[in-house]
């Protein structure tokens, strides 16, 4: 296929608006995958993704399509993750395209992630084709959604494409629009090689498989490549295209997207956003916009059974081969024993890693509440604190990360959402009416308040209709203090948190009340206290267990007795003892849901 017949594009959408379903339809329509070996939502490979309905890992697929003008085109569909945690990866994968399909649900309209993704597309100068999907739904209002996209997003919708991805309506129109409206890549084959890495994953046989777009020049097996930002060099074993299975080719030219294998050991060696060039006659200047992604959210992971420490280390090592954004280092706590302090891009990323450790590696973990990375000054030097219990006692100042939060909501819920944002220390910045019925709220908010249950609260206060996006903006000093928890007179390090001074009493009170509910009664009375330094600000106690639980099972009801015993055993699995007190997993998360 000639460069003028190549089209590189992606699909952007708010979650659940139909991106994956549309992608599947495009693959079927172009017979890239036969429907008989078609597995619903081909591009969403991982089980976890499918269950959660999110696209985490980027992917790509080349389709061959003969358009109504009679010519054969190669259409490269580059998948993008839809979630804020992965926004840097969204921007890299969009940088590999000339255009994108903007999918908007005909019954829902524009949402926070629709907008966030559009802004990234505009920054990358992409041709944006609006696609109004789910026109089959009884609640679909195509005209209203078109107006909304025009007003809010500012793009012309007079030739928006109407689809029902579910029923296969309008799919041909989408393919024609990709061919006619998205420009071909510029022909830069004569220049020295530069290729943009927009994704990579670890393969046990071939090493890291790197997905890239050739911007200038050409690349073939046997070439010695150099990654400009990491300065690493490799000999290329294989290059190819994804269709969507890997198909090796002789070479890839400027404008094409594809993959390579070069015995690279970990994805951290071939980072998203890095530039590939040749060792000989290469380029010095990397492509624009490379950024090291830094973890923003931290938590402790401890095996419930100390014998699993080695397994946990190995599992984290394996996950990191495939996840350059995951960080971990050993942590020892007198209460918890040996474990790891891990860093993640955001909450979703954290949940995914935790779930994989438990599901794929069969580890039983106690997970401590997520925290952000604080900065403080001690004797004139900056100290970074990613674990509240390690906050130095004598710090001169304490700073926390802030984000700009955009919330899009039906206007009816503006009141409750403003209340929520205020309660979470948000500084009101702006409010605009998107349409007669929808409003955007903008706040500056401490990231620490977002990583608790902000998302769930926002959803519940808006009956599920509001959506949000946030972007880290920087650090700000605040009146923050460390809130310690003592269980049976022992400091429970993993339960420590850093909170605003003005809220400390309220949080301390709520926390001890919650812990009283969550920690099971034991043979002795257990005092629970919240303290700032030496000063106790709230206390509760759990009274001693008087009767044997089995006493409840009168007479010889053996099966009931057995059930109760096995229930207790299962409950025990997720406990960790702090001193002599057994503390269940939920208690470690208590600080997140104090309301
Ligand atoms: P994604 O999160 O954007 O990838 O969305 P999905 O493709 O996973 O779709 C989300 C849900 O909407 C799924 O249950 C789909 O079956 C459904 N869906 C997608 N397209 C349509 C459509 O055109 N009509 C209807 N009625 N449902 C659709
Ligand atoms: Mg999807």
UniProtKB/TrEMBL annotation:
<dbReference type="Pfam" id="PF00679">
    <property type="entry name" value="EFG_C"/>
</dbReference>
<dbReference type="InterPro" id="IPR031157">
    <property type="entry name" value="G_TR_CS"/>
</dbReference>
<keyword id="KW-0342">GTP-binding</keyword>
<dbReference type="InterPro" id="IPR000795">
    <property type="entry name" value="T_Tr_GTP-bd_dom"/>
</dbReference>
<dbReference type="Pfam" id="PF00009">
    <property type="entry name" value="GTP_EFTU"/>
</dbReference>
<dbReference type="GO" id="GO:0003924">
    <property type="term" value="F:GTPase activity"/>
</dbReference>
<comment type="similarity">
    <text>Belongs to the TRAFAC class translation factor GTPase superfamily. Classic translation factor GTPase family. LepA subfamily.</text>
</comment>
<dbReference type="InterPro" id="IPR038363">
    <property type="entry name" value="LepA_C_sf"/>
</dbReference>
<feature type="binding site">
    <location>
        <begin position="79"/>
        <end position="83"/>
    </location>
    <ligand>
        <name>GTP</name>
    </ligand>
</feature>
<keyword id="KW-0934">Plastid</keyword>
<keyword id="KW-0547">Nucleotide-binding</keyword>
<feature type="domain" description="Tr-type G">
    <location>
        <begin position="4"/>
        <end position="186"/>
    </location>
</feature>
<dbReference type="GO" id="GO:0005525">
    <property type="term" value="F:GTP binding"/>
</dbReference>
<dbReference type="GO" id="GO:0045727">
    <property type="term" value="P:positive regulation of translation"/>
</dbReference>
<dbReference type="GO" id="GO:0006412">
    <property type="term" value="P:translation"/>
</dbReference>
<protein>
    <recommendedName>
        <fullName>Translation factor GUF1 homolog, chloroplastic</fullName>
        <ecNumber>3.6.5.n1</ecNumber>
    </recommendedName>
</protein>
<dbReference type="InterPro" id="IPR004161">
    <property type="entry name" value="EFTu-like_2"/>
</dbReference>
<dbReference type="InterPro" id="IPR006297">
    <property type="entry name" value="EF-4"/>
</dbReference>
<dbReference type="Pfam" id="PF06421">
    <property type="entry name" value="LepA_C"/>
</dbReference>
<feature type="binding site">
    <location>
        <begin position="13"/>
        <end position="20"/>
    </location>
    <ligand>
        <name>GTP</name>
    </ligand>
</feature>
<dbReference type="Pfam" id="PF03144">
    <property type="entry name" value="GTP_EFTU_D2"/>
</dbReference>
<comment type="function">
    <text>Promotes chloroplast protein synthesis. May act as a fidelity factor of the translation reaction, by catalyzing a one-codon backward translocation of tRNAs on improperly translocated ribosomes.</text>
</comment>
<keyword id="KW-0648">Protein biosynthesis</keyword>
<dbReference type="InterPro" id="IPR027518">
    <property type="entry name" value="GUFP"/>
</dbReference>
<dbReference type="InterPro" id="IPR009000">
    <property type="entry name" value="Transl_B-barrel_sf"/>
</dbReference>
<feature type="binding site">
    <location>
        <begin position="133"/>
        <end position="136"/>
    </location>
    <ligand>
        <name>GTP</name>
    </ligand>
</feature>
<keyword id="KW-0150">Chloroplast</keyword>
<dbReference type="InterPro" id="IPR005225">
    <property type="entry name" value="Small_GTP-bd"/>
</dbReference>
<dbReference type="InterPro" id="IPR035647">
    <property type="entry name" value="EFG_III/V"/>
</dbReference>
<dbReference type="InterPro" id="IPR035654">
    <property type="entry name" value="LepA_IV"/>
</dbReference>
<keyword id="KW-0378">Hydrolase</keyword>
<dbReference type="GO" id="GO:0009507">
    <property type="term" value="C:chloroplast"/>
</dbReference>
<dbReference type="InterPro" id="IPR027417">
    <property type="entry name" value="P-loop_NTPase"/>
</dbReference>
<dbReference type="InterPro" id="IPR013842">
    <property type="entry name" value="LepA_CTD"/>
</dbReference>
<dbReference type="GO" id="GO:0043022">
    <property type="term" value="F:ribosome binding"/>
</dbReference>
<dbReference type="InterPro" id="IPR000640">
    <property type="entry name" value="EFG_V-like"/>
</dbReference>
């Amino acid at each position: 296929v000639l460069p003028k017949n190549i089209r590189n594009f992606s699909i952007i959408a708010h979650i659940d608006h139909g991106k994956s379903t549309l992608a599947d339809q495009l693959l079927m329509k172009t017979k890239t995958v036969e429907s008989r070996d078609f597995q619903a939502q081909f591009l969403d490979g991982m089980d976890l993704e499918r269950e959660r309905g999110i696209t985490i890992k980027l992917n790509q697929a080349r389709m061959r399509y003969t358009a109504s003008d009679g010519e054969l085109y190669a259409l490269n569909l580059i998948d993008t993750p839809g979630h804020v945690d992965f926004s840097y990866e969204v921007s890299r994968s969009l940088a590999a395209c000339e255009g994108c399909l903007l999918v908007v649900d005909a019954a829902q309209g524009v949402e926070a992630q629709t907008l966030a993704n559009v802004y990234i597309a505009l920054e990358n100068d992409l041709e944006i084709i609006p696609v109004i999907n789910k026109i089959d739904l009884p609640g679909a209002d195509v005209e209203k959604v078109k107006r909304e996209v025009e007003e809010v997003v500012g793009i012309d919708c007079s030739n928006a494409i109407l689809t029902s991805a579910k029923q296969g309506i309008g799919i041909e129109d989408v393919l024609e629009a990709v061919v006619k409206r998205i420009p071909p890549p510029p022909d830069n084959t004569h220049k020295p090689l530069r290729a943009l890495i927009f994704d990579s994953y670890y393969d046990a046989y071939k090493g890291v498989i790197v997905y890239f777009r050739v911007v200038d020049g050409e690349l073939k097996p046997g070439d010695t490549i150099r990654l400009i930002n990491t300065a690493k060099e490799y000999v290329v074993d294989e290059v190819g295209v994804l269709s969507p299975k890997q198909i090796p080719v002789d070479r890839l030219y400027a404008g094409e997207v594809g993959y390579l294998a070069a015995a690279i050991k970990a994805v951290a060696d071939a980072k998203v956003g890095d530039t590939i060039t040749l060792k000989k006659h290469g380029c010095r200047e990397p492509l624009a916009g490379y950024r090291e992604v830094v973890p923003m959210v931290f938590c402790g992971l401890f095996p419930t059974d100390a014998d699993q420490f080695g397994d946990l280390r190995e599992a984290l090592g394996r996950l990191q081969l495939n996840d350059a954004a995951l960080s971990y280092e050993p942590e020892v706590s007198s209460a918890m024993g040996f474990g790891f302090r891990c860093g993640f891009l955001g909450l979703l990323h954290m949940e995914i890693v935790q779930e994989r450790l438990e599901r794929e590696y069969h580890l039983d973990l106690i997970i401590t509440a997520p925290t952000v990375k604080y900065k403080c000054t001690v004797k004139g030097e900056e100290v970074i604190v990613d674990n509240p219990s390690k906050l130095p006692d004598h710090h001169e100042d304490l700073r926390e990360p802030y984000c700009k939060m955009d919330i899009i909501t039906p206007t009816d819920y503006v009141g409750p959402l403003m209340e929520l944002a205020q309660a979470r220390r948000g500084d009101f910045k702006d409010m605009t009416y998107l349409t007669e019925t929808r409003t955007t709220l903008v706040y500056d908010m401490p990231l620490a308040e977002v990583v608790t249950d902000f998302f769930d609260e926002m959803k519940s206060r808006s009956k599920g209709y509001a959506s949000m996006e946030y972007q880290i903006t920087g650090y700000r000093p605040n009146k923050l203090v460390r809130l310690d928890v003592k269980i049976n007179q022992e400091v429970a390090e993993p339960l420590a948190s850093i909170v605003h001074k003005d809220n400390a009493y309220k949080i301390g009170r709520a926390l001890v009340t919650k812990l009283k509910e969550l920690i099971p009664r034991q043979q002795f009375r257990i005092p629970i206290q919240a303290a700032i330094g030496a000063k106790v600000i709230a206390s509760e106690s759990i009274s001693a267990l008087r009767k044997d639980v089995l006493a409840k099972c009168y007479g010889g009801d053996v099966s009931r007795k057995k059930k109760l015993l096995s229930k207790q055993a299962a409950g025990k699995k997720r406990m960790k003892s702090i001193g002599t007190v057994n503390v269940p997993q939920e208690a470690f998360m208590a600080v997140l849901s104090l309301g």
